[in-house]
Amino acid sequence: MKRIPRPGALLLxxxxxxxxxxxxxxxxxxxxxxxxxxxxxxxxxxxxxGKFKRFAAAVDFDPARLASSSAKVxxxxxxxxxxxxxxxxxxxxxxxxxxxxxxxxxxxxxxxxPAAAGKFDVAGKLxxxxxTVDVVxxxxxxxxxxxxxxxxxxxxxxxxxxxxxxxxxxxxxxADEVQIKFRLVTxxxx
Length: 190
Fold this sequence. Notes:
Blueprint: H1 7-10, H2 15-19, E1 28-30, E2 36-43, E3 46-52, E4 55-60, E5 70-76, E6 80-81, H3 85-92, E7 104-114, E8 119-128, E9 131-144, E10 147-157, E11 174-188
Antiparallel strand pairs: 1-11, 2-3, 2-11, 3-6, 4-5, 5-7, 7-8, 8-9, 9-10, 10-11
């Protein structure tokens, strides 16, 4: 009997989309120690969460000049961890992320629009496992001293990216929807 991968692992790569807000302007850089990208999915109704340990972002963000703001995020899919070694290994395999063939998930913005106070909608292209899809990432933004903080949750469907192939296509065991959660902090360069 095959072990059931924990669902959070499945779409963490999608967290790229969220991570798209990660870095800020040319004068700032991602503070990896204060930033995180996780994915939460449900396995037999139970929420499971995993995280990516390595991701990079290049963002030029200024709330006063959204038309020229942009973001690009790359996530190292092989850095995903779900808390159990066997499940982590399974999720990196061919039926799930296929990290050997598709080592990175990528989000690249195409436009940023204001939403409610302190919130923005970041449109862009999310590529996971070789499939590119248009997404809109809802994000909050706030200034904390010299840092900018971006947070949000992006719901995606794992089936859209062929995450969970073969016997794992059945969404009754591992739900199709995955919540990508992110907290990205940029720090000014000295």
